[in-house]
Amino acid sequence: MPVRTAKQMKPTLKVTKSRTPNQSTSGVLRVNQSATNTRSVNSSVHRKSFTLAGDSKVLDKGSVQTHKQTVQVFDETGKDVTPQPLYQPEAGALQPKQSKIFTNHDTSGSTLSDFLSTAYQTTNASFAAPFTRSVFGSSSVSRSSQSTMESMNDEIEDPSSKKDISLSLSDVQVRREEIKEQIKEHMLDCMVDCYLTETETIWLLDMPALSVSMDSEEAEVVKGRNMAYQELCKNRLGNDKYMERPMQTFNGAPKAKEVQSDSISMVEKATMATHWDIYDSYVSDGGAGNAADGASPTKLDISTLHRVHSSRPLDRTMSGASAISTASTSSSRIDTEAFVVQGENESDPEDVLHSEKFLQDLLVMERAVLENIYQPKLAAYRQLPILPDPNREQKAGDERDGQDDVSLNPALERLWAFNCELTMGRNVSNMAWNKKNPDLLAVGYGQFDFKDQKSGLVCCWSLKNPTWPERIFHCESGVTALDFSTCSPSQLAVGMHDGSIAIYNVQSTEKTPVIDSSDCAHKHTGPVWQVRWVENEHGPGGEDKRETLISVSADGRISKWFLRKGLDGIDLMKLKRMRSVRKHLGVKERKIEALISRHASGLCFHFHNNDSNIYLVGTEDGLIHKCSCSYNEQFLGTYTAHIGPVYKITWSPLCPDVFLSCSADWTIQLWRQDLFTPILGFTSTHKAVHDIEWSPRWATVFGAVNEGRLEIWDLGSSILDPIIVSMARPGVKLTSLLFATQTDCVLVGDSGGQVSVYKLKNLNAGEGKEVNTLHDIIRSTLASQL
Amino acid sequence: MAEVEETLKRIQAHKGVIGTIVVNAEGIPIRTTLDSSTTVQYAGLLHQLTMKARSTVRDIDPQNDLTFLRIRSKKHEIMVAPDKEYLLIVIQNPSE
Predict the structure, then answer these.
(1) pLDDT band at A389, cuts 50/70/90?
(2) Do you know which Gene3D superfamilies this protein is assigned to (chain B) (predicted)?
């Protein structure tokens, strides 16, 4: 217990005990006295004494005072500056006894009770206190303690000293009480009277109640107020208004902290969501879930609702709608998925040139460029009105002259020519239109003569590009025959000078034929002069229209080819030489000459348009045989008129019984099927007629090509002369002729490699009645002959 | 590859063709017969126009796509074959 002596508290002060008695007469006073006495030193004792008083129990503080030691305060100089007590009790005042009870009451005096008990019991115990005190005290203190102990010993009932001791022990300071030496032994036996008095009540708050008479005018107000107050008190419990809730929060000490970060750079980015952008995203993602969802009509309905633009009709492609349906059903999936735009890094910009699409684009571009150049010509070809270019500079009188010069005479207008450097110098041997695409033209280049044979060439030209062929096929030997298939329009049969037949597929860009007859055992040994795809309407077994490839060659065989592990052919007919011929020509029968071969060379053939069984064959001898597929030994008939090799036979497309033939004897003959003599013969020049063809539109018109010129004959106008004559370019011979199927244009191939396109103008052959006209002509001619 | 070069040469040799330009997606000229500044100018302007044209076509029908673009002016005709990776431009004077 920390007990500090006065000496310790104030080192400057010397505290001595004095023996001045401190007697108090009454308990209260004593209390006060003791209080006053000890005021200077120990205020806590002061408090203690008051608490004792507050308990309203009379405590004899006199005992406190009796053994209270007077504190004397000396300053540095030694002057006694002890504050005089306010009240000087009379000397010798009786010290009232104090009962034990009160001492026990004091909680703080628990030590006191201990002391008392000890004091009662033994004196040794009481010695403990001064001993304890002496621990802290000085010699003077010990002296005083001894004196107190004496007093304590003297007066057992005097607990004041003990109290003092206890108080002094529990307090910070030690109080010196002056021991009254007047307490003699004789006083111990005296009866001491203790007077208990109650302290006055101390009022802290006094609110006198105000009563109001019921009769007074304020009564109602007061009553109401009382009621209100009662209500308030009642409501107070659960009322939210009266929620009392103390709170205490810990306010953390604020601390300022500075942080520095990189400045956030903001970039604005704008994008536009277009219909196709959304569509692309759907397609790229919805394709995966397509199989799972399927395309049910209900889903389609939902999908149309979900579509961004509802104007899209349902009959658009299903793939698009089903993709959207997957999108609608798995929209959440699409939302969460991120669309990765594939970025292809072309390391080499030249790679662009290698792409397939680039080549295609180039072709399209070339055609577009050429269209600009050839547009008037192509328009004329197509029989479209030629619109003058409004931006074109009006060259002086040029076009107007052309337009004014509208002659009514039939004329040929040269539109353009299919020509390129590859074909220059080559002889055009044959031309054929594609059956499916009438703008596609196949031209075969090959020499007729045996002498100067070059490698052959087949070019497929398109009308859209007259300057470069679409396909180029190089052949080993000269191409002498060409034909496009009807059933499979991309197949092109090519007959060559060495007798082999090849079939090319023009759709692919391969340069090699699909199939070749070079390995065939039955291949022709002479140049194949003509090939044809012939449709068999009644094929074996009643199948659909099938086509067979039939060729005629100089070895005198007409062969039918079919695919069976390669091109294989069987002979339809072997052309035999006929000897008993030429009677009507008036040539004497000569001696039977030694024949080089028993077969006559076939130069051309033509199947009947309606009856695929009957065909005509022209031979090198000038004979035309009518044959049938069913008979491969015998001819059905022979038409004799020509004295030179028959280069071409052609049935009239409009008149079924009439056919034309041309030969090297400068003549063109018009025949009718049933007559074995020609009805009409046409001669105009002294040149061999290489090619003839009927016009597909007019029954009385046909074209003929001899070496020097192109002739258009119109039998309705004149049977003696051609109506249009066009001279060939100097140095070239015209070799082949082809009519355009849908327009009135004619194509002429020459030995220089050019294929010129001519437009027939002002051909006054009437429509429809030409057949009759032809028949009339024939009839009249026959009639005149008879 | 040789075909490509040949075709390009042929196109350039046609009547009235003023220039042929092939640029890749980044605008770098791969083949050109015009001078550098003209090439860059044509390529830049036509690229934007092609984008707009393609956007227009696809907005109307997202399954459609632009294949060819021809601009006819008083003096020339500019033909553009667009693609994702390149731009093929031919300038022709058709009335020559």
Answers:
(1) low
(2) Dynein light chain 2a, cytoplasmic
3-state DSSP assignment of residue A630 = coil
Tell me whether residues A368 and B68 touch, CB distance under 8 A.
Answer: yes
Q: What percent of chain A has pLDDT over 90?
A: 1
* Tokens standing for residue A149: 């102990």
**Residue A669, H or E segment:** strand A667-672
Question: Are A714 and A700 in contact, with CB atoms under 8 Å apart?
Answer: yes
H or E segment at A492?
Answer: strand A491-496
Residue labelled with tokens 């079924």: A656
Q: Are A591 and A517 in contact (CB under 8 A)?
A: no
Residue A315, pLDDT above cutoff 60? no
Strands (E), chain B: 17-24, 29-32, 69-72, 77-82, 86-92
Residue A362 and residue B55: Cβ atoms within 8 Å?
no
Name, in order, each residue with C-beta under 8 angstroms of A215's C-beta and a sequence gap of 6 or more. none
Tokens representing A81? 């500056």
Q: Is the Cβ of A135 closer than 8 Å to some Cβ of chain B?
A: no
Amino acid at residue number B18: I
Assembly ipTM: 0.87
Name the residue among A352, A358, A369 with its Cβ closest to that of B11: A369
Count how many residues are written for chain A: 786
Instruction: Output the pLDDT for position A619.
Output: 86
Residue type, A774: L
Please tell me the distance from the alpha carbon of residue A110 to that of residue A194, in angstroms, as a whole number. Answer: 22
**Is residue A83 classed as helix, strand or coil in its secondary structure?**
coil
Residues 333-352 of A with CB under 8 A from B: 344, 346, 349-350, 352
Share of chain A above pLDDT 70, in %: 60
Q: pLDDT tier at A268 (50, 70, 90 boundaries)?
A: very high
Q: Is A475 helix (H, G, I), strand (E, B) or coil?
A: strand
Q: How many CB atoms lie within 10 A of CB A679?
A: 16
Q: Which residues, at least 6 apart from A78, have a Cβ–Cβ distance to it below 8 Å?
A: A14
Q: Is the minimum CB–CB distance between B52 and chain A shorter than 8 Å?
A: no
Confidence at residue A578, expressed as pLDDT on a 0 to 100 scale = 64
B4–A contact, CB cutoff 8 A: yes
CA atoms of A517 and A505, how far apart (whole Å): 15
Average model confidence (pLDDT) across chain A: 69
